[in-house]
User: What shape does this take?
Amino acid sequence: MKNKTVRLRELNFSVTKTREQIAARVRQIGANLNLDYANKKPVFLAVLNGAYVFTADLVREFEGECEVAFVKLSSYAGKESTGDVATRIGLATSIKNRHVIITEDIVDTGNTMHKFLRELEEFEPASVEIAALLVKPDALLHDISVRYVGFNIPPDFVIGYGLDYDGLGRNLPDIYTLEE
Ligand code: PRP
Assistant: This one.
C-alpha cells in the first residue's frame, strides 16, 4: 500500500480496505462462484460505472465459460445516493434463460438493485444473484439479498477500486473512507 490518505477536491480520505484484502476476498468469491456456477455458463452483468474494476478482477477468477455484459445505471450526485435511479445504457446481451450474476461495487441504499432487479425479471433469466464488493447493511432501504458479499461496511462514504467522488478516485487500488 502506498498512500494511506488521499485528498480529492476539499475532502480527505483514508484507506480502510487494502488492495491485498480486496484481492483475497475477490479470490474467495471467485472460488464460491466456481462451485455454484460450474457448467452453468453464467452472464456476469456489470453495473457501470463503479463495478468495472471489481468485475474485471472477479471474472478472471471464474474458470468456466461465461459472458460479460454491461448496463449503465446511475443514482449518485456527489456524496449522496439520490434514490432516483436512471438507466443510461440498457442491456445489449440476451439473458433469457441464462444464469445472471449482477456485479456491483457497492449496494448502499439498495435503490439501484431494487429497481434493476424488477427490470431484469422482464427478460426472463433462469436465475439472478448479486455479487457486491461492498454492502452497507445499515443504509439498506429495501430487502435486497446479496448472495456474494466482499465486505459489509459502515454507512460512510467510500471511494477507490472503481468508486468515485464526483468522477474522481476510481483509479485508486485501495478503498478509502471519508475522514470525519
Ligand atoms: C453507485 C454504485 C451502485 C449504486 C449503489 O453507482 O455503483 O450502482 O451507487 O447505491 P444505492 O444502493 O444507494 O442505489 P452511482 O450512481 O454512483 O454511479 P457510478 O457507478 O457511475 O459511480
Q: What stands out?
A: The mean pLDDT is 92.
